[in-house]
Fold these 3 entries.
Entry 1:
Amino acid sequence: MTSSITVAKVKQKRVAELISHGKRLDERGLNDYREVQLEVGIIERAEGSARVRLGKTEVTVGIKIEIGAPFSDVPNKGVLTVNAELVPLASPKFEPGPPNENAIELARVVDRGIRESKAISLEKLCITPGKKVLVVFIDVYVLNHDGNLIDASAMAALAALLNTKVFNYEIKDGEVEIKPGYTQLPIVDHPIAVTFAKINDNLVVDPWLVEEQIMDTRLTITIDKDGKICAIQKGGYGYFSMEKILEAAKIAQQKAEELRKIVAKN
Amino acid sequence: MFKIPKRKTKKRLDRPQKKPEKLINKDNVRIDGRKLEQLRPVKIEVGILANADGSAYIEQGKNKILAAVYGPKEVHPRHLALPDRTVLRCRYHMAPFSVEERKSPAPSRREIELSKVIREALEPSIFVEYYPRTSIDIFIEVLQADGGTRCAGITVASLALADAGIPMRDLVAACAAGKVDGHLVLDLMDLEDKEGEADLPLALMPNLNAITLLQMDGDLTTDEFEQVLHLAVEGCKQIYAFQKEALKAKYVAVKEATEEE
């Protein structure tokens, strides 16, 4: 994201110089992720939850499920909503208030990956067609911003979905009655977002904050479980050549496999 | 001097039909009669709003979109001004009557995201460092929408910037490509976008081979992705030709008008 913190010119120069030699300030390779730590079920009140730490970036996702009305054009499908909060305690540059364009973009990129890969079988969330369906609220809560919020949020959202349990219910005389016990939310795909920063015509995977400050531009590619591309978002000023985009698509495939294994372990 | 030419009263568009059984028939013809790799008819006019520093209007199929540029001008509020460059601001907005069900005029999350990616698609084309402590405001109003409005919006906004006389590296041309009924197609209309398998909007500075906007949603293998990418780039190049033609047409009109006087 582009919350501009000030990075000393000399540090900017050093980071860019290292990258052009295939190295990074934190000693990662250009295609390496930072260490990923994943915990699920951390919020008992939520139907599902997960915390992802990607280096110093920290994101918590909570999932709440409610009964609500379907959209009129898809009366037999459940509803999915993703919201993201760039909480002020996460960065000196985040301010209280309604979500700004960065928060909205973050939420919509996470949403697109889950929606387009059809990760949740929304048909199974229908209670009475046209009237009552389950509504899945995915709330992304950014707790510490050290770059690459998209990948951390997408991974936390997926891990939280896999951890989500829906209350059992029964329909009596057209009314929904909540029953004891829980059922797993039907998750059928595992979309993984892989984000690149372009710095001096080099691609780096999983940019951290300083790299985001000096990058020309950013590209996020979301890969589904079959290795297909289900969502893309270019962000930031600057541009890509066709060759760089195709190179990124290839790397994204491998990286998505690696990350999917981490999520599956939990 | 630049009047919108009078048009015959048009019949209302039919209510969107239910999904036809096939979006592409066995002869590879699409529901609006186009071939797979054919653009919708494009009509562009430059310099049509009297108050704006630059403006342009595009019709691409049933899309009707206006863009206006104000600036470079003083920044309001002032604290947003930057010491070394202009501040580019962009608002993409859909008129309440532009879509089938009335859209609330308040900016939706979709419009906020599109305003951001459109700004980021146009910014690489502008010499922002030429105008420190100023702002350039771009307003895109979608009057009627039929799929591909972010691309048509970029195409027309880039012309409005040129019309405002802002120094630019190249025009930005935009076009989507995607996958519908298993076929790779260019310039998806609304129904194809909604019912099809994938949609990939792309913006390009054709002379620099620089891709400034790239989004995708749907389901594509890596090979299909590469083909769709190439298709969208070809579409942008065709749009680019229309842009240059429209820009020249304006100055021919000015020249003729002054010669008459």
Note: The longest strand of chain B covers residues 63-74.
Entry 2:
Amino acid sequence: MSFCYTSRMRRLPRIPLLAGILLLCLAVAAPAQAADPDAREIIRKVQELLRADTGIARYTMRIVTPEWQREVSFDSWDDRLHKRFFIRILAPVKDADTTWLKDGSNLWMYLPRLERDIRIPPSMMLSSWMGSDFTNDDLVKMESVVDDYTHRLIAHDADSVTIESIPKPDAPVVWGKIVHVVGTDGIPRTEDYYDERGKHIRQLVFTDVREMDGRRIPSHWTIQPSDEPGKHTELILEKVRFNPQIPVSVFTRANLRRKGS
Amino acid sequence: MWALAWRNIVRNARRSLITVSAVALGLTSLIFLWGFNDGVHNNMMRNLQEAIVGSLQVHADKFFHHPKLNRTVPDPARVIALLQQQHIERYTSRLRTFALAAGLENSEGLVLLGMDPASEMRTTNIAGKVDRGRFIKSNDEKACVLGATTARNLGVKLGDEVVLLGEDHYGSLAAEKVKLVGIISSGEMGIDRGLAIVPLGFMQRMFDMGSDVSEVVVQLPEERLEAVTSALRQQLDGGYEVLRWYDMYPMMKQWVELENAFYYIFLSVVLVIVAAGIMNTVLMSMLDRIHEFGVMMALGCGRGHLAGMVVIESLLLGALGVAVGTFAGLMLVQYFHGAGIDLSGQMDTVARYYVDPVIHTEIDTSHLRNTILAVLAAAAIAALWPAIRAARLQPVEAIRHV
Amino acid sequence: MFDALSIYLRLGWRNLWLHPLRTGLTTAALAIGIAALTFLSAMNDGWMQQIKTNFALTVTGHIQIHARGFEQSRKLADRIDDPAPLLDIVRQVPEVRLITRRVRVSGLASSAGASGGALVYGVEPATEKRMSRLAGFVSQGGWLEPGDDRGVVLGDGLADSLEVGLGDKIVLMATTPQGDIASEVFRVRGLLHSGVMDVDDLTAVVTLDAAQRWLGLGKAVTDIVVRVKDFNAVASATQQIRQLLAARATGEPLETLSWIDIDPMAEQWAEFADAYTWIILAVVILVVLAEVLNTMLMSMHERVREFGLMGALGVQPTQVFVMVVWETVILVALGSGIGFLIGGGLSWWYGVKGIDLTRFAVAFSFMYMDPVVHPLLRTKSIVEILGAAVIGALVSGLYPAWKAARLQPAVALREL
């Protein structure tokens, strides 16, 4: 029995967890049937363009709010098949060489300034991360976008098509509707997210198409939440290698303390 | 008639004494029971406020239900100026956020509270709850106080280092190593588990918060709470929320209300016993006097007169009983207010967090008033029936009555 | 001896009825006292029961069975893979009244606009409704229907921070025992409000089947929750279940915990509340005894002349003493008999009907604590309290008897 102070205490703290971003970028697609084969095929190709089983990449994330803005650069090693990843912060300087390692259900973090590695409880792996506008949903749910939605072509003009994706009733997604605009070249331009009541929640804009590791992909992504004008998050893909061989030694606790090159 | 009634009372000193003592004893016990009940309850509510919550907290609007680091009190200086205007001295400011605390192998999510040791000790008793080590000393030291359960979960001892990890004002990583200087085992789960206390100045720097605070905590005497709350609410319009302790943690108040309701019923039953006792004594003394009444009537005393005399007698006895009972009851409450009733044998740790093992009785004015009125009413009603009986006596039979 | 006894009995009886009003008054005083004590003791026991019920049966239940270590770790890794044979074993314990299964896991709830930490319960809707008060807390919409594997009931605080209402969609995410993140979509069927922030801000209730499918648990559960006959049966039932489960040939190691083991503070708090009401009850017993003594003294005072007369007529003081004692015995027997019937009747009546305390309290919402007290007649308390009162009344009858026996006839006769 406790009368008072316990509540408000067991919320999950927000721990800066960069990891999920990778999943967002390197989303996986899988075959399935859909209402509009053309629309579905377009979405599938978009996913295929960005997918990879493994990846090594360098990102810069920029969080912009009316009061302040902030940038983080990091390298990531991602092995989706073995459910593990490794992240190293490059900038800002005060956080440089802070590292994360996820292997199966364990997550560690290393703080070079304090010379300590910390095991993060599994329950906290789900908590939201940093001041960014990416939600936890992005972490796990982008991967099945082809299967979880029914896709329908609703408009097209000379250089783009517009596809409306409605989640299937049992699909574990929070959205009510996503509207994709994809260029005729197969490169995504925007995605608009709505809730079930038709309220616009956020927009994802893809720009800066570049040739990277043999693929032409948008390298600059911006997420703009609609209820917080003036605030947005940008993710810039500096360089990437799709499906490389990643040495097993990357995903070890010893690697946490190693300095970046 | 009053004089006659009074003479009757004095003449039958023994009988009067029994009646008066019946009323007095009943009332004394009722007052004492309320004193005990109110003493425990006030103690519980006071302890809750004194421990950490305070009587009143001022936050940025909606902070309590949606606490975020950046939702800070818009203008703490203004809040404090208002408090000083009202001559309130016991107040303190805190910063609050969620963080991860890590020992060598384990980590745990918790609430991180930044406290200014000097004003905190003036305002609450949290420093007194530290039972191993000490409370934080300066406003800037790299030190923390943890609850016993959290310290155990993290596997840290006094003097060990604890890593605190959170997200600062700008969403970037805030991490510091602090020394564990004190451990609280209060018995209250919400404090023993999931709470870390660090110096306010240190925490403001760690989270890049400047001089911002999340809450201003005010300690007030019970009788000033409502007035100060409404004054603050009026002056701090928009952007603030002013919450009393029971707006934030209503459980205790509910418990007290519920228990009071229970004792109202409980003590009304006791009141029935007391009333029955009074009625009984008055009736008995009536029986005793049937012969006397007969003689009086034979001597030409009217029925109405007789009935009036009985009522006045009973009322006088009742009033005397109430006076004695109130006096004795209050004396008892007063005595145990000072001396206390030691219940330490019955109490374990939790209870001790909420209730001191030595109960100091005190009585709520409304409880006192209601009880006295109820006993007076019982005495008056108890007087009616004997009066009616007296008025209906047949003189001849009455005189013959043994 | 028997003759003497019957003479005194008859004499006492006749004496009492010589003065019907006086006897009636004394009996009434006793009866009211005893009735009140019986009722108060029943109320006290009902109140204690109530406090324990509020503590134990809000969510916890009387007894819980987990895989060993779950209470400490709260991880799905510590789970009961096949609860069915365990349920059969638990059912063998005669005190067991209700069994339900649960999956408990902490995770994350998200809506399109927001997300927040959640403590998810996978429950069997029908039995859970009778086990805990969760279903009773539903303030909007309804409780889960059996088989509604897409429904979720949310704490209103959680719903508020997710910015969702009835019919809206949420996604629950949690880590499976294999370390994967699993998510599942649910629709809000009901909102619950308990008044306890821990419950209101964190709880999400889904069906057991849905939770098992979502987390890939198969038939596995984390809790088997048991309700027994009453609180007194908890200790012995826990012991029996422990023994029966220990005697099992196969299966994972288990832990069997009573509500006291799970929340020792609740038990301590209940004990304090018990000590507290006993102090009050003790004072009430004193009051009752004092009133009885008072009445006895009064009636004795009135009879001084009568005793004097008897003494003058040559009745021995011991005979007067024995006579008065027997009168007292008859009075006490009569008074307490009637009193007990009235008090017991009242307790029984209100035990069925319940006493709603909200009517006696200021307007306040009692969510966590059920404000209806059902007085409860417990043999132990009745014997203790009635025993104290009857013995007290008899003792207070001895003093007048002793005084009566010592009266000087001449002095007594002179008194008016």
Note: Residues 37-50 of chain A form the longest helix (14 residues).
Entry 3:
Amino acid sequence: MAASLPVAGLAQAADDPGNGDGPEASAAADHQQGAHVGPDVVAPGERGELDALLIPPPALTAEPGRVRHYEIVAMDRDIEVAKGVFFPAWTYNGTVPGPVMRATEGDILEVEFSNAGSHPHTIHFHGIHPANMDGVFEIVEPGESFTYRFPARPYGMQLYHCHAPPLKKHIHKGLYGAFIIDPPTPRPPAKELVMVMNGFDTDGDGENNFYAVNGKAFYYAKFPIRVRRSELVRIYLANLTEFDLINSFHLHGDFFRYYRTGSTDQFEYTDTIMQCQGERGIIEIDFANTGLFMFHAHQSEFAELGWMGFFDVVDE
Amino acid sequence: MTTDAAALQRWTWGLRLSVLLPVLLLLGAAALVSSTNGSLTSLVGANPPPADELEIRRATFHANEISVLVRNPQRDAITIASVTVDDAIVPFTVDGPKRLGRLRSATINIPFTWVEDDPYSIGVTSSSGIQSTIEVPAAFEAPAPSRATFTGYALIGFLVGIVPVVLGMMWLPALRRADPRWLAAFMALTAGLLTFLAIDAFAEALELQASLPSALGGPGLIVLGVAVSYLGLSWTAHRLTKGTPTGDGVAPLAGVGLATMIAVGVGLHNLGEGLAIGSSFALGEVALGSVLVTGFMVHNVSEGLGIVAPVAEGKRRVSSLRLAALALVAGGPVILGAWIGGFITNEILGVFFFAIAVGAALEVVVEVGRYIARRAAGGLTSGAVVGGFLAGLAIMYTTSLLVG
């Protein structure tokens, strides 16, 4: 049964020719505004280059008291944040965001931090830990080092970032990363991904010029993330965008469960969530359909300045 | 003669070499300094990092496309990395390499379905992330060079340049019967209006050079333009009067000769006027309505009067062909200027043209002044001359309000 919707100021429209967004229509759109997806998208980086940031190390079964050792080095590095645009970043281990750290609740997290950068830095972890391990008071000068050691808890999607003053500078320069604490009872098996939403103010005017997940504008539009329809997709999502009050995640063509912070089993069923800076959570998607599904910030400006990507959902 | 010959003979090879020696030593010293690769200047401090900010000269809108003209205003090369329209990254092409050397320009073409009359903010980001932005208050289709616009500029130039000059020249029969004191007053009026035109062109040249990167040396360009036209016209005026036999030195230019000089001075100014009209129209800065065209016509009528004033005094008849040629010399450049301004964007050329107009107008003021001083009763300080000069300034100022 066809419902007729009112159209202001117009007589009954002519017969709808059918799906307007056929292949021809999208080809025309590509001609006008450039490619949306695939190798013609203008984005920095090579295929697979961001895998270490996208795919977390595997979860280990609970073994209270086990030591999880990580080595983190702060270093200054020019990184390509959009095609041809280089940003003089402050990094953990050379990438923005820094490497994904992972522990199971009850593990002892041991992070050997050395500062090879030109400014004093720290690592401040979100989670439960003693005050002297908080990355606020023990400023690590260039050339010096410090070892953080504390039990990892509570489980959930945590994060880490530099807390040396001025805080705004040290965060927007790129000193942050994802820190996953797994629950004692393992989560159901899934294709696991990490996405850290970030922005880059390349001309120092206090406004971001480019936005991304995992540091490269439009990277996942050029190289869509391939997932299987039969497999649960779990995204550990965090927002480390400086200057803007919030950032958001919107999935096309499907809904997901969103566990805010991921430290309880409470979730919301939706297709759009927002996070303020430092907020994070876990997204679980059971894709209903195959095909290319866009995901992006639902602040259109962020999406059009680089924070946009695609899932390529396939049947095996 | 013998001493001259002896002096010539002393131009030995050794002497010639000694003339070249400072040049050779200078080249050597310059090469030495540049070979130190900045270690000399580092003794007194470090150079600040380059701004890496591209200068956006203009944005024009065409069917499904936006064109942005950019220039690298600094010494170090800049690479165009990213382009945004209203804070959205858009695909683009550059008509040449994306890396621009010192003072090099390039056109960026952006495929874009823009909306008529909407404001747009267009950003160009260099590889070091520095963004320059141009705000377009309202998008409109840029006039493409066509036979119609070519004819249009010619027609506007004809109306604004030639028609008023011819109208002004039609006062010639009346001027011939005028009292000598009135003639002197009209000559002074010519000097007054040329003074106004010189100041006007100088202001235009200064304003335009301020928009240039400092490396292009706008002030020097103005000095050069003024000097070239002033001295060039002085030299020409001297040649024109050489045939006139006078007892004491160079006689002041008079009659058709002076009229020609005035026509040249007015014409060079009108070239700049045409340039301003053409480029303003092409950039959409001026709604070139009938009011503006009428305003320019009224403004330029007095120029025709100024040209024929020195002819009126002469006893000889001047052929209408010669008068037509004078009108063409004075008014025709508006057409030429409108074409150049409408189809080519070149601020350097604009500054130079305006500077030439300044020098030309000043030189003709001097010629007219010399003429009045010699021929007019009471010289430069008579009431008729002072009144005429002030009237010339006042007329130009008042009519300029019509086009302001």
Note: Confidence is low (pLDDT under 50) at residues 245-249 of chain B.
